[in-house]
Amino acid sequence: MSGIIITCALTGSIHTPSMSPHLPITGAEIARAGREAAEAGAAILHLHARDPVTGQPSAALEHFNGFMPALARDTDAVLNLSTGGSAVMSLDDRLAAPLAIAPEMASLNMGTMNFALYPMLGKDRDWLHDWEKPFLEGTDDLVFKNTPRDIARILTSLGTERGARFEFECYDLSHLYMLRHFADRGLIRPPYFIQFVFGVLGGMGPDPENLSHMVRIADKLFGGDYLFSVLAAGRFQMPLITMAAAMGGHVRVGLEDSLTIARGQLARSNAEQVVKIREIVERLGRVVMTPDEVRATLGLKGAGQVDA
Ligand code: KMH
Ligand code: ZN
């Protein structure tokens, strides 16, 4: 089987500080987490920013600048900026930092959807910050907006005008058809790096049958023009990404997607998850790809053209 791309999503905008002491929040914590994950074998770092004091998801360029220069200096990883930000942000806010930085890669969410995080409220806990509980409670009436017009705007402003390539986040079968639509409109060119997203309440569930069906339909829609990666939320992370690796796909880990390293056991770092999946995929006979091999495979513009 070909080489395998390990992506690590360091902090995200889903989990809140009270859920794990290991979730990186400040620029220095995110930069350290990225260095460690890259050293462990992550070729792509998927990046969100947070307010360093409150831990709230942030769209502020200054918060991205809290870690971007350090990651560009200390790693050769592909720095992949989220355009998803947080579902509570406007698209203008979500795009502000990526447009300023002009990354090699950015995420792109292929449909409007529910993004329900309130099931994580679970048993009450001592919340570190007063924003956390209302943030989670409010997701029962939250729409994560990604209309075709939004998608076209991101593709044009970040892709065509600034040379970014994309991690296409597909949470459902319908998102593959939306991606095909944009290929037919000539707004994207292969190879398509498609991230199948499992286990977000509002997207498809973490069932292996869904993975095999997504691959079957992606094969039908894109033939040899795509690579698939898998991320799965929470306890489903390792089983599903292991299945992806066995199927010839690529994998994404990171505390954005799961806070655990094993059932009921918090991961002490992002790198711990990278090490675990690297051991698994190498036992499966896969060879972990370097950042430059990823750049060559996906046709990325190179780190030198990023305003980090
Ligand atoms: N949080 C993941 C479920 C994005 O940042 O654009 C999907 C994601 C979206 O990473
Ligand atoms: Zn993300």
Overview of the structural elements:
With 308 residues, the chain is of the alpha/beta class. It has a single domain, classed as TIM Barrel. The chain is built from eleven helices and 14 strands. The strands form four sheets. Strands 1-2-5-6-9-10-11-12 form an eight-stranded parallel beta barrel, surrounded by eight helices. α4 runs parallel beside α6. The longest helix has 15 residues. The radius of gyration is 18 Å and the shape is globular. The structure holds (5S)-5-amino-3-OXO-hexanoic acid and zinc ion (ZN). Zinc ion binds next to loops.
What proportion of the residues is helical, as a percent range? 25-40%
Q: Largest sheet at a glance?
A: 8 strands, parallel, barrel
The strand line-up of the biggest sheet is: 1-2-5-6-9-10-11-12
Within the CATH hierarchy, at the fold level, what is the topology? TIM Barrel
Number of helices: 11
Tally of discrete structural domains: 1
In terms of DSSP E residues, the strand content is 15-25%
The CATH homologous superfamily is named: Aldolase class I
Query: SS-based structural class?
Result: alpha/beta
Q: Shape from CA axes?
A: globular
Indicate the mean pLDDT. 97
From the coordinates shown, what is the CATH architecture? Alpha-Beta Barrel
Bound small molecules, by name, code or SMILES, are: (5S)-5-amino-3-OXO-hexanoic acid, zinc ion
Rg, alpha carbons: 18 Å
Number of strands: 14
CATH class: Alpha Beta
What is the end-to-end distance? Answer: 34 Å
Low-confidence stretches: none
Query: What is the element string, with H for helices and E for strands?
Result: EHEEEHHEHEEHEHEHEHEHEEEHH
